[in-house]
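Let us walk through a complete example step by step. Step one is to write down the protein sequence. Step two is to encode the small molecule, S-adenosylmethionine, as a SMILES string so that its atoms and bonds are unambiguous. Step three, shown after the inputs, is the structure prediction itself.
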Amino acid sequence: MPEMSATARWFVGRTNGPLYRRFVRRWLLQSLKLPAGPAILEIGSGSGDLGLLVHELFRPSRLVETDHDPAQVTATRASFVRALGRVPPEVAVEQADALSLSYPDRSFDAAFAFLVLHHLGGHFGRKAHESFERGLSELDRLLKPGGQLVYLELVQLGTIRRFLQARGYVAVARHRTLGLLERAIWRKPG
Ligand SMILES: C[S@@+](CC[C@H](N)C(=O)[O-])C[C@H]1O[C@@H](n2cnc3c(N)ncnc32)[C@H](O)[C@@H]1O
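Step three: the predicted structure of the complex.
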């Protein structure tokens, strides 16, 4: 079973939460409009910091937090317990590979992929392109018509844009930080 390195896990667990609470919070509040009680999926939930933020901001009727690394699944669960005293009934924290998810087509109003697409399949270079497309195909399959894909990513930004535009997605918000890190929201047609 593939796992994050201990160093990467340490880094992600300590830095992303504060950054997300400070910067991503404001961006999501301004830019992401969802129906009341949305169904939301997160892939590569890691420390669970983004999931907690999404839970607080959007009050989902269903929030599915997934990661393929069992240690990260435990970390996500622990974050909910620390912050809320439990994993609330509308939240499911599950071990799952983002390249092959078992949820039915058109299940979610929004899907979050923060700093995870470049991990899919563990590939860099030529194979990264295929992994990106496989991961994006899964998210496309799982989003309802009009659903929104929200991501933070550093690499293969052109691959992501071309994939989504070819399927009729429209960019709702796209920003680059330091010319490198893209945060974006795309709406699926329908
Ligand atoms: C850099 S961390 C980002 C974690 C979190 N999204 C954040 O922004 O703080 C990448 C996460 O993706 C997970 N991951 C990598 N490949 C995956 C896959 N194929 N399926 C599901 N999760 C995966 C890792 O276990 C890790 O928790």
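Step four is interpretation. The two ends are 37 Å apart (CA to CA).
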